[in-house]
Amino acid sequence: MSTLLSSAARTASPRSALGLLVAIIAVMALMPTFLPTYHVSVLTQILIFGVFAMSIDILAGYAGRTSLGHGAIFGTATYVVLYTVTQYGLPLWAAIIISVLAATVLAAIFAALAIRTTGVYFLLLTLALGMIVWGICLRWSVVTGGENGIRGDIRPVEIGDALSFYYVTLVCTVVLTFAMWRFIRSPFGLTLSGIRDSAGRMRSLGYDVSLHLFLGFVMSGFFAGLAGALYALFNNFVSPSTVALTQSVTGLLMAIVGGVGTLFGALIGSFVMITLENFVSYYTQRWPTVLGLVFIFTMIFAPAGVLGTIRALRSRRRG
Amino acid sequence: MSEPILRLESVAVAFGALRAVDGVTTTVSRGERRALIGPNGAGKTTLFNAITGMHPPTEGRVVFAGEDVTRMPPEKRAARGMARTFQITNLFNQLTVEENMLLALRGLSPRKFSMFGNRDLDAEERERSDRALDRVRLGARRDTAVRELSYGEQRQLELALSLVMKPSLLLLDEPAAGLSPTERTIVVEIIRELPRDLTLVLIEHDMDLVLGLVDNVTCLHEGRILVEAPPAEIAGNKAVQEVYLGKPRHA
Known about the structure:
The structure holds 2 protein chains of 2 kinds. Chain A is mostly helical. Chain A is built from 16 helices and 2 strands. Chain A has a single domain (14-318), classed as ABC transporter involved in vitamin B12 uptake, BtuC (Orthogonal Bundle). Chain A has a two-stranded antiparallel ribbon. The longest helix of chain A has 27 residues, at 37-63. Chain B has 2 domains: 1-81 and 169-175 and 196-251, 3-Layer(aba) Sandwich (Rossmann fold); 90-166, no CATH class. Helix content of chain B is 32%, strand content 24%. In chain B, the strands form 2 sheets. Chain B has a 6-stranded mixed beta sheet, with helices on both faces. In chain B, strands 2-1-4-5 form a 4-stranded antiparallel beta sheet, with helices on one face. The longest helix of chain B is centred in the middle third of the chain and has 13 residues, at 123-135. Chain A binds chain B through residues 2-3, 6-7, 9-10, 179, 182-183, 185-191, 193-194, 196-198, 200-209, 212, 215, 219, and chain B through 52, 54, 73-75, 78-79, 83-84, 86, 90-96, 99, 102-104, 106-108, 111-119, 143-145, 148, 161, 165.
């Protein structure tokens, strides 16, 4: 019991998390039966961005390194899928593998340059690297189509309709969420948390801190790339805004709203933000203003995010 | 046996014009217990950082177990059997005591790279962790988050983290700093109970604490070695008294 309590603050205990997970998956699987098509595609988007936000949380919440370059990693995969399929007629599976590989390689380059920095320097360096990718996508119009981007109906007919693609995405999300959860709960995942708490102590214990951060960043980029590849299938279109800073910020905000360092919180954050955006946009065009307000209120009243606050309340009540 | 475990040759650490450590030469033999004393700013912790590689020396050589480690990063020195504790408590605050021990145990094991495996302790690790925690009287606190430990307990965990690495040379940076008299007694007992084949270098201000614990004392002053002698001689040494208490004034 005491194990459960002490770990509840940061990570859910395996058993309660599993129960909750099964319930959530069941609800998510049944959702489309109540919802019109448009809302099914909103749900799909929530899942994809949830995976993306979780990949950011691996670094921000566990390794203590907040990246503003993940939008570029995500969007690179989206670009590569659309480009290789529309230009070279590559089979989709091959395009997805190549795109995730490209995103992972890009993450490795980002990592090699950024891991020696911390705090605001890490933030700014990843931001600058992301901006470079955005600049390339904007200007290298022969390949990227410039501001017009790349359009292509790449989704196979079998999963062409919104409903079946939703289920494909749901399965992918479950698998990837499980993989990321295993990753942060692994011996290696613990070393990232160790580095977050004290890099100096880690070094004196025999850890090559740079190597661990590098591998952590690459893994995080790998997951962001998978989300980006899924997004290519979802959107059938990519433009520079997919790799832009806003993309990174959106993902980070989702992780923050859900609760940094909770992993699953990122899914909640994605749900909250995308639902809110759709709801707000129905009444006003001032979504960015509302977004800013949401962020400010989160920071003031629930800096631990939705899931972080729930866990803190629960452990206080039981303690 | 002839080769000392640690040899410092004219080690200097300069921060710009300030020479915090200024030409320290000494040897520590295997199994020796050495105290490093000196007033604030004498360069004790800086010397520790030079020995462990946290801040490598700007001049001179550090030879550990017969190998020149002067330019080696801390993690490689750790792999060769060097462990340290920190003057300012330096633990993994958001993790539990057991998770702290896990990280200390796996620093030198390939299992630290297991990305999707189970993080739980295996039988051998469990035994090592339990032994180290029992040694520092934290056996019952395994599942507690570090930030919920008392300050004294955190100092004890500092010791456990370095002990579980099975080092051959252990550097303790003011292990009893800021502790109550009762807590100090616990830490002294823990240190006294350490195996005799473990070489210890210990920074400590409290002469009473040091006297019964060590074989030799090195007194640093302004980055240089002032005196190096057995504890009995240090207590009555004029030079040592002067740097601690100031020169007697003759009116």
